[in-house]
Amino acid sequence: MNKIILVGTGGFVGAILRYVIGGYVQKWTASVGFPYGTLSVNLIGCLVIGMLSRMDEIRSVFSPEIRLLVFVGVLGALTTFSTFSNETISLMNDKRIYLAFLNIVIHIIFGLSAVLLGRIFIYLIWR
Questions:
Q1: What exactly does this protein do (predicted)?
Q2: Is residue 51 in some structural domain?
């Protein structure tokens, strides 16, 4: 139960950060044609998870509880793209290049396909 509270608390913070940062950047860029807000939270999340995961690899600075709070909760709610990117780099670092490439291809192709199928499904139901 304690783990769920840690993830939920971090998720609460991450979701608020996503809303605030993404909204601010989108408003600041005054763009209606490109999702700069989403891009910004994805890139910020990738930068932060890269820095923190490397710090932890070198110095073991995070307890399992803090990893749940920050990596899964805060960064997971801020952007799952950061987790995807970090896992892909970890596969590359482990010399599992084929799996890293497969991870990229599957996420992109199946992710886009799932969104398209979901949209088609709802269109067919509610047209």
A1: Fluoride-specific ion channel. Important for reducing fluoride concentration in the cell, thus reducing its toxicity.
A2: yes
Could you list the residues known to form a binding site, using ranges.
76, 79
Q: Measure CA of the first residue to CA of the last residue in the chain; give whole Å.
A: 43
Residue 54's nearest CA partner among 84, 90, 82 is: 90
Instruction: Using the Cα atoms of residue 109, residue 70, residue 49 and residue 94 in order, give the sign of their dihedral.
Output: negative
C-alpha 60/C-alpha 54 separation (Å) is 9
Q: Give the count of domains, the chain.
A: 1
Q: Which domain holds residue 48?
A: 2-79
Annotated binding site for Na(+): 76, 79
Could you read off the pLDDT of 29-70 as tens digits, one per residue? 987 778 888 889 989 998 999 899 989 989 999 999 999 999
Q: Which of 60, 77, 65, 95 is nearest to 20 (CA)?
A: 77
Computed on alpha carbons and rounded to an integer, the radius of gyration of the chain in Å comes to 17
Residue 94 DSSP label: T
- Whether 87 is covered by a domain: the verdict is no
